[in-house]
Amino acid sequence: MAVDKLYSIVPRPPAVEAGHLLKLLKYGGSNLARRGGLLTTLLFLLLFSGTDCRKNKDNIIPPDNGPDTTSHNFSFVPYVFGGNGGSSYFKDVAIVSDSEIWAVGGIYTDSGFFNAARWDGQRWELKKIPFIGSCSAVTYPSLQAVWAFSSSNILVTNGGSIVSFDGTSAEMDCGMNSLLSGAINKIFAINLQNIYIVGNGGTIVHYSAGTWTKLSSGTSLDIQDIWGMMNPATGEEEILAAAGEPAVSFDRAILSIRGETVTKISDAPIAYDLFAVWFVPEKHYYVIGDGIYEKNMLSDSLWANSVQQITTYYTTSVRGNGTNDVFIAGAFGEFLHWNGESWKSLRVQTALSNGAFTSVAVKGNLVVAVGGNLSSGDLNSKAIITMGRR
């Protein structure tokens, strides 16, 4: 179908249309090939994407963080990985410290295939994390998500199982495999005995006391992200998940998880799909995707902001140090920072010509975003890591 004909049939807002095409990038080269190829997909993304980022408006909720603000002043360094063997990309990233960062995905180089990269404080080194067990047909598969407790205690997933990796050896756990309704997208772990995984088809699985248990999520949507933090008012871990299918529909769900009970919470008046969630309990809550939506309290009746109020780009990941230090990344290298007073787009330093960030992590004055990008003249996308320091 010609691009102009497609556009005339689907006249959606730019950020929304970009969201529906972004998922094709997110799930890697094999899925892209079935849908017309990476180049075509990214061309569509370029045509349907917005071009500006909007500053804080009067009707955007100011997070309840007090008078303190943080600096917007970051310097970014990009790192590019990949060769001619196939389309390369990173899917997720975790920061342990300034000298211990892990990014995972699928990276084709002239010297072979890798599924991870480690930062040692000086440089990035590509790694191969093995999946050896009955539920993995490939020894070194592409990886979907990572959760790192420490340099010697890292959890990664290929979408169908979990590997515990100590930096040298890997131990595979297939216990959740038969409980999955679709591929795993994210890991959230409170400790090694309290782990949640979320994924496609409404998948939520919980690990506790040596046993994996499938939870009833109440949705068949793909659950894209999960985040949790101790709520000081209740003394319990507060956990939220965001679900949506940007290549399929505008349907969405925001899920609250308490132990092994899952409850849908109001998404009014959001009209488009969601992709990520982050919050500080009892202070401020974000859900993002086709738009950036926020509340000061989860009990507030409505989510604030309209679909293109803060940025016209589709957004894929949100994390923060606190309510006055929040980072949001997305399509075409969009990179937003809330400093407690205003939003600022740092895309002038982080722009991607034909790609997207898929995950962002932050620790103190260090922020890292990962994803994929197709540069002019390249046949295959390259895996991207962008590191920012304040």
How would the blueprint of this fold be written?
Elements: H1 3-9, H2 14-26, H3 28-34, H4 38-48, E1 75-81, E2 89-97, E3 100-109, E4 112-119, E5 124-127, E6 145-150, E7 153-157, E8 162-165, E9 170-173, E10 184-191, E11 194-199, E12 203-208, E13 211-214, E14 223-231, E15 236-244, E16 252-258, E17 261-265, E18 274-280, E19 284-289, E20 291-295, E21 315-322, E22 325-330, E23 335-338, E24 343-345, H5 347-350, E25 355-363, E26 366-373, E27 382-389
Helix pairs in contact: 2-4
Briefly say what this structure is.
This protein is mostly beta strands. The protein is built from five helices and 27 strands.
Structure description:
The protein has 390 residues and is mainly beta. It is globular. α2 runs antiparallel to α4. β4 and β5 form a beta hairpin. The chain has five helices and 27 strands. The strands form seven sheets. It has a four-stranded antiparallel beta sheet with strand order 1-27-26-25, with helices on one face. The longest helix has 13 residues. The protein is 11% helix and 45% strand. It has one domain: YVTN repeat-like/Quinoprotein amine dehydrogenase (Methylamine Dehydrogenase, Chain H, 7 Propeller), CATH 2.130.10.10.
